[in-house]
Design brief:
The complex is a heterodimer of chains A (about 300) and B (about 375). Chain A is of the alpha/beta class and about 300 residues long. Chain A has ten helices and 14 strands. Chain B folds into two domains: about 260 residues, Aminopeptidase (3-Layer(aba) Sandwich), CATH 3.40.630.10; about 110 residues, Alpha-Beta Plaits (2-Layer Sandwich), CATH 3.30.70. In chain B, helix 2 runs antiparallel to helix 4 and helix 7 packs across helix 8. The longest helix of chain B has 22 residues. Chain B is globular and about 75 Å long. Classes of the chains: A alpha/beta (about 300), B alpha+beta (about 375). At the A-B interface, helix 2 and helix 3 of A face helix 2 and strand 4 of B.
Chain lengths: ~300, ~375
């Protein structure tokens, strides 16, 4: 830790931690407390902890403030650009309100949070000059119920959707063990130059866009050992897969791998068995992508970019 | 003493200002499972936390108890011990991830005793923030093998082998804030096991039922005449046995504890229960085993002892009402070795030994101020005049 802090000071960089939230009252305090204690008070590695909230209806924002995070409602950041609900939206807006040269993104629902989640992600960025973006991987036991932790599981969308797609189109990227992990860090001068899909597609697009523009050599991945998270049901994963496929299709079309002769559709129907009858549940992709933040005039003005 | 008594209320605010350090220690230590006899992982984490807090020395004793030392300013003064047991009642298979909210922290074992250990691991930083350096060294001990069948082995071994005199000790428990224990009853914790051999199935028309045999044992224990003085009681604390509803139970176990403020009385009641066991075993032709799991000698400081008087004043200064009952914890072992000691609670909470046990965060700051006050009292000499 001492070496990381020394390297940070030598390179004169600042580091921001961003936690995107939507109803995370159960887990947010622990993340903030541990990061603040270990990486701000004990070792001055982090310069700020910022929570960007999508309009939680529990006490997420109140609790986050109580433990000393800077808390923002996504809707109040760049309001003139409209508002969408989604993790990608929060991460994009975090670029506007954070100050750091390095931004660390962590999901706010990590039950076994530990400060290694941050220092491990930051280490390659500080210690290796060529590295611009760092991604986490880990074992993914699932919290299957009250006080029950299943030792394996998770990563189903990765194995069923992303890994086959990477293998088909970008075999080099299959080296990334968990491309959909919600924990990553990057230099601002990279993150500000890529577009951000507002929803689930953000992890996929980020990897593809950084790979296309800067290549694989700027990416690192670190082993965070284990991450316990809430399990999602198959239908939720299906919706996630739908969004990711859409994001992926746009990217491979743009890069010339395929040519879609017709417009794709933006709705997915899922079925629920209710009292012996199947009921359709329609999920619609918003399909919005935020432009690279560096193209936003307010951002350029705030950060004095000519 | 008056000088630091006056400072106690303002200490509460200074301690609150570093709440994230204290809460992070409680969480990082408490989330590491530590069932009795399997405390290695928590020992490692606890030592890491002490090392991060820059204690002057950090090691384990020959028995495996982790120890941190905060050096004092005087070589001449014996050390003061702060002790919190490292083991909990929960196995490694239980989800130990804690939940932190605005006013509470919830998780298995937090009251007994992760909050106590987390606060102890924070002590070096708390003392630095408060600008306090004692004349005595402070020895921070996370003793292992304390509860249940552990029978306080960790602290017994540490004190048996500790090479120097000890000035005084404070034992800390997560709850309950306001407790001020300065005496321990004599105690003998036992199990009676009843096993019906399978041969009974074929040789007797009416097979004995292990549960009913133990029921008979309980019945006869309850008929024992126990004196008012010395105080004595038998707590029937645990019973298990049988396999299913429609089958005569072949095995059953009864757990009980004999408590008295006189060791002689504990022995006498134990002999009575042994006679009961032998009689029932003989009359019912069944095998009953009586086994002692742990025991403690009765020991006490007087209420007039300067340590007790000072601690009482400190609690009152913090607007806490001292509550004194006997405590069969590390305290007993210190008192056995004639080392003045008290046990205190750090905060309030509930669901003590359940998986959703919780502590309240705000009262903890007073609980810590109380600990600092007692350490300062010991350092000022309240244990030196006996």
């Amino acid at each position: 830790m001492g070496r990381l802090v020394a390297e940070k000071q030598k390179k004169k960089v600042s580091i921001s931690l961003c936690l995107p939230t939507l109803n995370e009252a159960k887990t947010i305090a622990k993340e903030i407390v541990i990061m603040k204690s270990e990486l701000m008070t004990r070792y001055p590695l982090l310069d700020e902890i910022v929570v960007v909230d999508s309009g939680s209806t529990d006490r997420t924002r109140e609790i986050a403030r109580e433990y000393g995070a800077d808390v923002y409602e996504a809707a109040n950041i760049l309001p003139q650009m409209g508002q969408f609900r989604g993790k990608g939206e929060n991460l994009w807006k975090a670029l506007f309100i954070t100050r750091g040269d390095i931004i660390v993104y962590l999901d706010a629902d990590i039950k076994n949070i530990h400060h290694r989640f941050v220092y491990a992600l930051v280490a390659p960025l500080l210690l290796y000059d060529g590295i611009k973006y760092c991604k986490a991987f880990y074992d993914r036991p699932i919290a299957a119920g009250k006080n029950i932790v299943r030792p394996t599981g998770g990563g189903r969308v990765t194995e069923l959707v992303i890994r086959p797609l990477f293998s088909l189109f970008f075999p080099e990227l299959t080296q990334i063990i968990q491309p959909l992990s919600g924990e990553y860090a990057g230099f601002r001068d990279v993150l500000e130059k890529i577009p951000f899909p507002i929803g689930y597609g953000i992890e996929t697009s980020m990897i593809l866009d950084i790979y296309e523009r800067w290549g694989l050599d700027v990416m690192a991945q670190v082993d965070l050992e284990k991450r316990v998270h809430r399990n999602q049901d198959t239908k939720a994963l299906g919706r996630m897969a739908f969004v990711i496929l859409n994001t992926f299709a746009r990217r491979i079309e743009k890069q010339g791998f395929i040519k879609l002769n017709k417009q794709t559709f933006s709705e997915m129907i899922q079925y629920n068995l209710v009292k012996s009858r199947y009921q359709a549940d329609i999920f619609k992709i918003q399909g919005v992508e935020r432009p690279p933040m560096i193209d936003v005039p307010e951002y350029r003005e705030k950060f004095n970019i000519c | 003493m008056d000088s630091y008594l006056e400072k106690l209320p303002s200490m509460v605010d200074a301690i609150r200002a570093i709440k994230e350090i204290i809460i992070a220690n409680i969480v990082l230590i408490g989330q590491t499972p530590s069932p009795t006899f399997k405390e290695e992982k928590r020992t490692r984490i606890f030592m890491e936390r002490l090392s991060e807090a820059q204690v002057d020395e950090c090691t384990t004793d020959a028995y495996g108890n982790p120890i941190g030392i905060i050096r004092g300013t005087s070589d001449a003064k014996p050390p003061i011990f702060v002790v919190a047991h490292l083991d909990t009642f929960f196995g490694e298979d239980v989800d130990h991830n804690f939940t932190v909210k605005k006013r509470t922290i919830t998780g298995p074992g937090i009251l007994d005793n992760s909050a106590g250990v987390g606060v102890m691991a924070s002590l070096p930083q708390i003392l630095r923030v408060l600008g306090i350096r004692l004349r005595s060294d402070i020895v921070l001990v996370g003793d292992i093998q304390s509860i249940g069948k552990g029978n306080l082995r960790g602290i017994r071994n540490l004190l048996k082998t500790w090479p120097t005199p000890i000035r005084g000790a404070v034992c800390i428990e997560g709850g309950e804030l306001g407790r001020l224990n300065y005496y321990s009853d004599g105690m003998r914790r036992c199990e009676i096991t009843c096993s019906i051999p399978p041969t009974f199935r074929w040789t007797r028309k009416f097979r004995p039922n292990a549960i009913l045999i133990l029921h008979e044992v309980i019945d006869q224990i309850l008929k024992l005449c126990l004196p008012q003085k010395p105080r004595a009681r038998v707590i029937i604390g645990m019973i298990r046995g049988g396999v299913e509803h429609g089958e005569i139970a072949q095995d059953a176990v009864l757990g009980f504890e004999i408590q008295s403020d006189a060791d002689k009385m504990v022995k006498s009641i134990y002999r009575d229960i042994k006679d009961i066991k032998n009689g029932i075993s003989h009359e019912h032709e069944v095998e009953l085993q009586l086994r002692t799991i742990s025991n403690l000698n009765a020991a006490r400081l007087g209420f007039k002892h300067p340590l007790v008087k000072s601690a009482t004043e400190i609690l009152k200064k913090l607007e806490l009402k001292p509550v004194s009952v006997s405590s069969e914890t590390e305290l007993s072992i210190f008192l056995y070795y004639k080392i003045p000691a008290v046990t205190i609670g750090i905060t309030r909470g509930d669901n003590y030994h359940l998986e959703d046990a919780f502590i309240k965060i705000e009262p903890m700051y007073k609980g810590i101020a109380q600990l600092i006050g007692i350490l300062m009292a010991i350092d000022s000499g309240v244990c030196d005049e006996q």
